[in-house]
Amino acid sequence: MALPAFQAANAADMRRSMGRFTTGVAIVTSGVGDSACGMTISSLTSICLDPAILLVSLTEGARTTGMVADTGRFAVSILAARQEAIARRFATRGGARFEGLDCEYGEYGVPMIEDALVQAECDVHSAHQVGDHAVFYGLVRNLRCREGTGLAFYSGRFGDFHDFGHDEMPWMF
Ligand SMILES: Cc1cc2nc3c(=O)[nH]c(=O)nc-3n(C[C@H](O)[C@H](O)[C@H](O)COP(=O)(O)O)c2cc1C
């Protein structure tokens, strides 16, 4: 079969192409008490280790985006494979977020997803408007990690990770 021709990038092609990049899935939460909000993301990236800084890219107009900008704080919960329903819940526009959901809390009081693989509380280190997204660099203040398998996302579908059975490598980066 002939290779498709290169063509000028547009939003639909960008979404379809970047969907081929398998990612984990996380929930970004911000705000406390009744004003808490959250959304599903795959744009989580580790930026540097010392200091510990991560990045999230949040669409303009989402309630969570405004809350992160207003409070200067957010939390990240990296989901386990069995938490697909939570990923769907937090990706539904206008849908219920915390009703009937058990959360865990750290120093900041921002709700985090119970039994998530990783929970991190962050201060906004810096923020940039990039096109229709707000990119937040988060200085990680508090962090905890559990054993388990992460939820994966590829080409619009959820799944989990199966390794090739090779020895673990001491990757340095
Ligand atoms: C697997 C997955 C990953 C997503 N990643 C992002 C992301 O990185 N940034 C983003 O702005 N929206 C992302 N979304 C879409 C938001 O979760 C969705 O638009 C959400 O409803 C926004 O919150 P709102 O309802 O308060 O606007 C993702 C959705 C899914 C299902």
UniProtKB/TrEMBL annotation:
InterPro entries: Flavin_Rdtase-like_dom (IPR002563), NADH-dep_flavin_reductase (IPR050268), Split_barrel_FMN-bd (IPR012349). Coiled coil: none annotated. Keywords: Oxidoreductase. Transmembrane segments: none annotated. Pfam families: Flavin_Reduct. Residues 18-160 form the Flavin reductase like domain. Belongs to the non-flavoprotein flavin reductase family. This is Flavin reductase family protein. It comes from Saccharopolyspora oryzae.
